[in-house]
Each structure stands twice: as structure tokens, then as C-alpha cells.
Amino acid sequence: MSGKVMSMQQAIGTFVKNGQKVYIGGFTHCVPFAAVHEIIRQDIRDLEVCKMVPELILDQLIAAGVCRKIIFGWAGNPGLGNLRLFRDACEKGEPYKIEIEEYSHQGLISRLYAGASGLPFMILKSNIGSDLPAHNSAIKTITCPYTGELLSTVPAYNADVAIFHAQKADANGNVQMWGVTGEHREAAFGAKKVIVTVEELAREDEIRANANLTVFPAAIVDSVVVEPWGAHPAYVLGYYDRDNDFYINWNEKTKDADYISAYLKDWVYSVHDRAEYVKKDKNLQRLTDGVKHGI
Amino acid sequence: MEYNGIEMLLVQAARQVKKGELVFAGVGLPIIAMAVAKKFYFSDITIICESGIVDTTPTRLAMSIADPSLAMNCTAIMTPGEIFSYFLQGGRVDVGVLGGAQVDRFGNVNSTVIGPYEKPKLRMPGSGGACEIASNAKEIMLVMPQSKRRFMEKVDFITSPGHMPDKPEVKKSIRGRGPRCIVSDLGLFEFEDREAILTGIFEGITAERVKENTSWELRCTRELKKLQPPCQAELDFIRSLDPRGIFLGKVG
User: Fold this and answer.
1) Tens digit of pLDDT for each residue in A196-255?
2) What is the predicted ipTM?
3) What is the set of domains in chain A, with CATH numbers?
4) For residue B127, which residues of chain A lie inside 8 Å, CB to CB?
5) Minimal C-alpha gap between A2 and chain B (Å)
6) Partner of B56 at 20 to 30 A CA spacing, among A47, A261, B116, B178?
7) For the domain B5-182+194-241, what is the CATH superfamily, name and number?
């Protein structure tokens, strides 16, 4: 181990603290589930989490009592519908009332872009005519000084720490990602600290040979965690397929809200790390069938 | 030949696309409908998704908008920020295809909450990219199963703006022209003077039944189009994309 390479325990323990603003990457591709599970295991509390598509992570964070506030764009189980505990928290204040701050996707990406660019706010052509600005006072309207038209504005967002998953990184922290790279670059450049978990460690010369694939240059990365299967049940292009059965089962089984706590007990609290999780799930290898490695 | 209303919806939505259009499709029914459009009606359309995927044709069911089946079969992957800025705000998208939980006669869509926002009866996922798609695509097409609770006089929350005839100042600041049509599992609605009018019905459906499943006082065209049922090849294709019936539900 050299450079910025750390264990998951060390990376989360070093950089993620109670009460922080935490950005979590993964636009349904390369979702850093393993890192989130480590946050839960370390019992970090009172987080203000920001995530474009928080998907199942949100149910897990609520069940674990980690998340005080969620800033989001689309909070559902992709393709399948609503999230059980997010619903309960909003509708009934159970297991506890969660603070929400909601944007459209472009609204949230615009916040990240402003945060990364050192701008106080960003303009966009959306939100006008929607009811969202009436329920989120951070979304405002300005008159364009050039054309006179109405434009929507959103304030800059900067995380204390941002966490991502990607295919590869070198020990210096140059991170390469391909396929859907989502909002990763905007979110990382706006964050004070950046943790990246990757499927495999690369040599620096591999990075240099394909520099267009570098999503984060080493200068903005604080920690690299080599964590194979770190995005399961989401997918990593070239490594493993999306575990759609997992998402479909989640939708069915979380009709019983207690299922989520039981899941955390079995798959988060009673495993030491992702390596143990991978060993425990005898069914993972099917997700590598027919997956073309690399690019 | 047996088919259900959702299958009919998908095929009819595919027919509402126009030759050569650049289509922005959401996950679920929209992307399946556009796959049908590309395969059976307009092979020259370009399908893009908000995850950044450009010119895709799903070959298996896309469960998420960044699904590997889309990412592995496309000509470009941009970032969502680039898609919103350059394709949508840049004015390059001809038609956005959206679902939702509720729609009103002006094409305002709700996919956020049922009941009041601060204490909802049902909290749904929210906008995602829907608001910017509805705001910036030249036109939008809405696809959703129909019932009285979905086709509302007034939606509980406007997630994505429609024609907004009562708010001309707001509408002036929205680039897109608004909804082109609504396709439900009963029929086709097109917009006349910014209001959704029933213009076509599926085989075996009466105008009466559509009215019973609409909360506003629905107007119909004098001559309702009898919309052609799907052909066997279309049904085979749709079912091959969703063999478990996740989006199609029970057939027959």
C-alpha cells in the first residue's frame, strides 16, 4: 500500500465525521454501497446527505439512523417506484422525521456546478411553472439582465466530504471511470475531501496511456480504497452487471418495514467488510456472466 | 390476439413520434415505447436519456436510466449536466416522453406527492429530470395508465409544467411548446387550445368509459379515431423486453 491507498475502515474513519455534509455519487452506475455500509458500521450520525438518486441507500441510511437530512433529485427505487422508509419518514415521521431539500436533477447538478466553479449560484431554465420553488426557498427566480426573461437560480453546494465508486485508480489518486460518469466531476470538485472506492488499482502508466478516462485528477482526491464489488447491488460497467433481482426483491420485501433492519443486521453489521460480504453472497458470480471487461 | 391496455399504450405512444425526431425518454414505459417506435415505425429517431446516454436502443429491460443495457448500446455517453445544458436547454430535443402519477387537462404532471407537500399521503420519488424535460423539449408526450384518481381536475403538485393557459407570464418563460399528446391505456388525447381532448380510442373501449375514468369534464372530437391494435411482432418484441411483466403487468 502506498500513496493515498487506505482500507475502507481507515478512509471512512479519517474523513467522515458526525454532522457533516456528505455527497454520495453514483447515478445508478458505480453507487458506493460498500462505503455507505462502512459509514453505517462506524455509527456515524447526524449527516446531511446529498445524492442525486439516493435509491436504496436512502432506506438503509434511515433505517440505521445515520441521516438527519437528505438533499435529492429523485428518491425512488429505479424503475420500480417508491422507497419504503423514505415514504414512512415523510408521511408518518417514522422511524423518525427526516428533513428534506428537493431539487430537479438539473437543479441539483447546477448546485454542484456552482460549488465546483466558485460561483455563488447557477442559473437554469427549469423550475418555472413547477410547484417546487414554493416548497424550497433556495430555488429563486431572477430576470435576465440581457434578455429580460425569467430564469431559475439555485445556490452553490459544497460537501465536506464526497464519496464515489469508479473502475480504477492509481495509488496517487488519479481515478478513471467510463460508462455513465454522472455528476461525479461537478460533485468532487466542489467537495473539501474526496474518497474514491475502486474495483482495482492501476499503475500510473496505465492511467497516462488513456488520460481521457480520468474523471478525477489526483490533485482533488484524498483517499483511494480498493474495494472489488464495492457498488453491488448497482453495477460497474466492464466488471459486473446490475443485480436487478436485488432491487426487485427490495421492492417486495420492504412492504414489511422491519425487513430493512434485518437486512442491515445480516449484510452490514454482521460482516466486517465488503470482502466478507462478497464471500457471504454465494450468488454474485452470475452477475459477471457475459460482462465484457474493459473498454 | 390477446393484449392488455399497457401494451396498447406502448404501441400508440410509439406512433405519436415523428420521423427523424430526437426523443428524450424516461425509464419505464417511455423507454419501452420509444424502443417500439424505433424498431417498427421510425428507425431514424435518436433516443437519449438523462443519464447521458445518446442514441440507444434497449435490447433488454432497462430498470434504471443509466442501465447497462443502455450504456452498452449507444453512440455516446455524455454527462447528465451536458445533456441538460446542451441537448435540452440548447433546444435540440424534439419530444420528451414522460410518465407520472397524475395529469390535468392542461398537461401539468405530478410525480412528487399525493396530498399536501409537507405532510403527504403518498411520497413519490419526485422530479428527477422531468421538470427540465417538460420545460425545454420542443414538445412532450405523456404516457400513463388512466383512472379518475390519475386524470385529475387539478393535480396535487405540479412537478412538470404543462400548457398553463391561466399563467401566460410563466408560460412565456418556458422554452418548450408543452404537451403534444397524452397516451393512456384507454385512448389518445391531443391538445386543442391547450386542453386535452379525447381524439382516439382503443379497440373495445367506449368514449363513455374514458369519461368515467377522467375527473375533468372531458371533451371529445366529433369523429373518434379507432386506434389500430398492436400486431403480433410488436407484442412479441414488447414482451421480450419485459418477460416478467414488471412494467406490462398481467397480459390479457
Assistant:
1) 999 999 999 999 999 999 999 999 999 999 999 999 999 999 999 999 999 999 999 999
2) 0.96
3) 8-83+158-288 (3.40.1080.10)
4) 73-74, 102-105, 130, 132
5) 32
6) B178
7) Glutaconate Coenzyme A-transferase (3.40.1080.10)
